[in-house]
Specification:
Blueprint: H1 2-12, H2 14-17, H3 26-32, H4 43-62, E1 82-83, E2 87-91, E3 95-97, E4 100-101, E5 107-111, E6 117-119, E7 124-127, E8 131-139, E9 142-151, E10 154-155, E11 159-163, E12 167-169, E13 172-173, E14 180-183, E15 189-191, E16 196-199, E17 203-211, E18 214-223, H5 226-232, H6 240-256, H7 263-277, E19 279-280, H8 289-295, E20 297-298, H9 300-314, E21 318-325, E22 328-337, E23 340-344, E24 352-353, E25 356-357, E26 367-369, H10 371-374, E27 378-380, H11 396-408, E28 411-412, H12 415-427, E29 432-438, H13 441-458, E30 464-473, E31 476-485
Parallel strand pairs: 2-9, 11-18, 19-20, 28-29
Antiparallel strand pairs: 1-4, 3-7, 5-8, 6-7, 8-9, 10-13, 12-16, 14-17, 15-16, 17-18, 21-22, 21-27, 22-23, 23-26, 24-25, 29-31, 30-31
Helix pairs in contact: 1-4, 5-6, 5-9, 6-8, 7-9, 8-9, 12-13
């Protein structure tokens, strides 16, 4: 067939080869060769010539000889349309521009459910409410679809009022997409990649959570407080008086709390400091931490608030407990160590004698006490507070006191040991001594009687007066003795 086509082409250009045309084409030939000296030939000869040319051309084609040399090559494909996205997740109020790739005349856009998402004539999709729908682009009679999911992300807090040194976890719900966070002022509030806020100094700032192109904002106001100022040694934003109190509290902590101390040791050290540096206010006019730390005198509220301040700074879980003790309204502390709650009444551990403070003495009858023991002379609404069932620290102080008393030679397991300590103290010219005895207060009465006999034998003919106080100490009793010889 290809040979025949070529041969026909040659016939139509017959003057090049000097040949005629078959019958039926003479007119065409004459017209083409007018003025060229056309000479009519026989039809048989023309047919034979045509056949020869066909054979020649067929041979040339078979050996892949080009009919004319190629200067280059062009490949053309029909354009195929498609959407830039077939699935899309946006937030309520967020916009995203869809587009059709390829050639087309006009695009007709439509949204399946306009209550969830809308689409403009230019393909801009806008989230309306949480849910799923489909956006369709119709191009030249063909429809292309994008599955659209609309989320409604929200912050758990849009306003946070915090104290310096505190922390808060900001959370975004209603989305499965990645959330990024940024603070407008990192010197006031710092935010982690997970949304944890750290409040560094007083001031105002904002934290922005970004989901896609949606931005959620939380405004933050940070103020200073006594615990924060004491903890950070930063006093800006406090009143002059509170600044003085905070500096004093910082000074106390630095003096009594040492590196490497366990929490129970810190609690004990602070308990002792408050007792030794505070006198109970019998005028009942001093209630504050300022009165306790700067004036050295306060009622139970001052004692308890000061202990709470120290515990807050140290990060030890605690709370105030309000009840009745000694027939009056009273406040003391609840402390949680190792998951167990204990009562701590610093006020009642500060001894009074004839209504006056006893300098230099500390009691421990109300140090880390369980509900049962505390209820002997304290009452409170138990349903309002965690159970204080006690634990490993219930007997901590008594074991510690026994170790210290033994090391100082002031522990008596028997009445004979007690008598030796008393007479030995008197012979050295000392008139006061505190001894830890094994046993209850009833046992201590026997110890005292035995000690009086020993003193009289050691000091014949002299009048001896002995004053004393007792404190129950778990399995022990502490006895303070004051001796006078005439």
């Amino acid at each position: 067939m290809r040979s025949f086509v070529i041969s026909c082409w040659i016939h139509r250009r017959r003057n090049v080869f000097g040949i005629g045309v078959p019958q039926g084409m003479e007119g065409w030939g004459k017209k083409m060769n007018r003025g060229m000296g056309y000479r009519k030939t026989g039809w048989l000869r023309n047919l034979l010539c045509s056949a020869a040319v066909c054979l020649l051309c067929a041979g040339m084609w078979d050996v892949d000889m080009p009919f004319f040399p190629a200067a280059g090559e062009i490949v053309a494909n029909a354009a195929q349309n498609s959407l830039n996205r077939t699935e899309l997740t946006i937030s309520k109020g967020e916009r995203f521009a869809l587009s059709v790739k390829g050639s087309y005349k006009k695009i007709f856009w439509s949204a399946g459910n306009k209550k969830i998402a809308t689409v403009s004539e230019k393909g801009v999709v806008k989230g309306v409410s949480a849910g799923k729908t489909v956006v369709t682009a119709e191009v030249d009679g063909t429809k292309y679809q994008c599955k659209v999911t609309v989320e409604s992300p929200s912050l758990n807090k849009t306003k946070v009022n915090a104290e310096m040194g505190d922390a808060y976890q900001l959370k975004v719900s209603g989305t499965k997409r990645k959330v990024s966070y940024k603070s407008s002022d990192t010197s006031i509030v710092k935010v982690s990649s997970k949304g944890k806020l750290s409040f560094l100094k007083p001031g105002s700032a904002s934290v922005t959570a970004t989901v896609g192109s949606s931005k959620l904002t939380c405004t933050v106001k940070v103020k200073n407080s006594l615990p924060a100022a004491v903890k950070t040694d930063y006093y800006e934003g406090l009143s002059e008086q509170d600044g003085e109190v905070a500096k004093k509290a910082r000074e106390v902590l630095d003096s009594v709390v040492r590196e490497g101390m366990e929490d129970i040791e810190k609690v004990l050290a602070l308990h002792d400091y408050i007792v030794l540096h505070t006198a109970y206010d019998t005028s009942y006019t001093k209630y504050s931490v300022k009165n306790t730390l700067l004036d050295g005198s306060a009622v139970c509220q001052g004692y308890a608030d000061t202990m709470k301040l120290f515990l807050d700074v140290l990060g030890i879980e605690n709370q105030l407990i309000y009840g009745v003790a000694g027939g009056d309204h009273h406040v003391w502390n609840l402390v949680c160590l190792d998951g167990q709650w204990y009562h701590l009444d610093v006020t009642w551990d500060d001894p009074l004698l004839d209504g006056k403070d006893v300098p230099g003495e500390v009691c421990y009858e109300y140090f880390m006490v369980a509900d049962g023991n505390m209820a002997k002379d304290h009452s409170w609404e138990r349903a309002d507070y965690p159970l204080a069932e006690g634990g490993i620290y219930t007997g901590y102080i008594w074991d510690k006191l026994m170790e210290e008393a033994e090391a100082a030679g002031l522990f008596a397991a028997t009445k004979e040991e007690f008598s030796r300590i008393v007479t030995g103290t008197a012979s050295e010219g000392e008139r006061e001594v505190a001894i830890l005895c094994k046993g209850t207060s009833a046992d201590a009465e026997t110890f005292l009687s035995c000690a009086m006999d020993a003193l009289m034998r050691a000091n014949p003919g002299r009048e001896i007066r002995v004053s004393y106080r007792m404190e129950a100490a778990g399995a022990y009793t502490r006895i303070w003795l004051g001796m006078e010889f005439r």
